[in-house]
Amino acid sequence: MENDRNMTANDTHGGQQTDHNKQENANLQKKHSLLEVFLVSTKLGFTSFGGPIAHLGYFHDEYVHRRRWLDERAYADLVALSQFLPGPASSQVGLGIGVMRAGLMGGIVAFLGFTLPSVIALVLFALVLQGFDVGQAGWIQGLKIVAVAIVAHAILGMASKLTPDTKRRTLALIAILFTLLWPTVLSQVLIIGLAALVGYWLYRGEQAKGESPVHIPISKTFAITCLTLFFALLFLLPILRDVTSLDAIAVFDSFYRAGSLVFGGGHVVLPLLERELVPTGLLSEEAFLAGYGATQAVPGPLFTFAAYLGTMMNGIIGAVLATIAIFLPGFLLLLGALPFWNKLRNEPKIQGALFGVNAAVVGLLIAALFHPIWTSSVHSPLDFSLAVLLFGMLAIWKLPPWTVVVAGCLGGILIGVLS
Question: Which of 34, 205, 277, 344 could form a cystine bridge with 282, CB 3.0-4.6 A?
Fold first, then answer.
């Protein structure tokens, strides 16, 4: 009897020990995933030059092509969702990938890794280098040409997967023409909506094949909470601003509203911020314009221009406040939409609409490759030659993106010397 009791106790202890080991392994795996997401996103934060469309090219190469964290269709669907929502599209895509990989904390560390390098650089620009003109530096021109190669390589990979037939190629072509001939923020949203309707009609009943399901570790309750918070802040902040007359509330309200109303990425947010800050006396026009060249010189999202503006107004505290305020609305919207998007994208009736949207996204990328990326980067045969060489490094020799960035910087400096 005593032996039976001992054996039972040992079994219970052994089971507890096994459960404890499993929990420890799960915790270690979670920490490893978070660290992996942070390191990869930080690398992208240091090397992703060229604006939101170029960032999508960098993300595609790193997350889809090299690491295979998600497949082509899931990536294109996430890009399409981010294009629909207000906010910084590339940062929203990075947040979504982080969430898929390692949960909500994965999304947060992905955002921090991708954003902190440019935030720190712009704060330093504001504190130390306000009078330094970096806009005409040769290495800046080289980085613009890097963006040409990165986006062209991304388009090549996405087009082969997302426009495999004549109907979808035609949709992509119409998206290119529509976007280039009517270059407004509204045109981008409208063409995606029209492509969804056309795709639903052309491909209704069809399903994507050979794609793995995407796990979104966010509950619908949490998603609804995020959406509620987004609208609550949007309507309550202006009231608090008038009632309290606090500078901190005024700054947070200005940047939050700008981040809530912007479709199309960081370039569009600049005039909104100028209208919010300059006429109200929060910042002089000269100080506002002084940071624009510096913003073009750093990698990462253009929304981090808020860090420069916040620093100019109220030092480091202002930088933190402005950065959080401008990114927060886009992130609340994405986190609120992700669980519902994941269900919709796997509904057979919605597949046709997503076929059309993904084809339109390819067209939008091609249009963006021409303008503003190509038109602002390639001005001479030397520029074009460097772009071809950098594209070859990616597409032919399969070299990592950081080597392309370094080669682009050196090539830009050399072109500046030879010109």
Answer: 277
User: Using CA atoms, how far apart are residues 77 and 346, in angstroms rounded to an integer?
Assistant: 11
For the residues 264-293, what does the mean pLDDT come to?
66
* H or E element, residue 175: helix 166-181
The type of residue at 131 is G
Q: What pLDDT score was predicted for residue 140?
A: 72
∠ CA 110-114-119 to the nearest 5 degrees?
130
What is the rounded distance in angstroms from the CA atom of residue 274 to the CA atom of residue 258? 10
C-alpha span between 251 and 288 (Å, rounded)? 14
Write down the pLDDT at residue 123: 92
Q: Of the candidates 335, 329, 109, 110, which has an alpha carbon nearest to the alpha carbon of residue 225?
A: 335
Cβ atoms of 109 and 41 closer than 8 Å: yes
pLDDT of residue 170 exceeding 60:
yes
Please report the sign of the dihedral spanned by the C-alpha atoms of residue 378, residue 382, residue 385, residue 391: negative
Give the burial string for 344-375 (b: 16+ CB within 10 Å, else e). bbbeeebbbbbbbbbbbbbbbbbbbbeebbbe
How crowded is residue 17: how many other Cβ atoms within 10 Å of its Cβ? 10
Give the residue with greater pLDDT, 314 vs 112: 112
Is a pLDDT exceeding 90 seen at residue 151?
Answer: no
Q: What is the overall mean pLDDT for the chain?
A: 83
Q: Where along the chain do its domains lie?
A: 34-418
Write out pLDDT tens, residues 60-112.
Answer: 999 998 999 998 888 988 988 887 788 888 999 999 999 999 999 999 999 99
H-type alpha helices, 282-347 = 285-297, 305-345
Sign of the dihedral through C-alpha 53, 55, 335, 236: negative
- The residue among 94, 359, 100, 93 whose CA lies nearest residue 208 is 359
Per-residue confidence at 21, pLDDT binned at 50, 70, 90? Answer: low
CB 348 within 8 A of CB 144: no
Q: What is the DSSP string of 307-323?
A: HHHHHHHHHHHHHHHHH
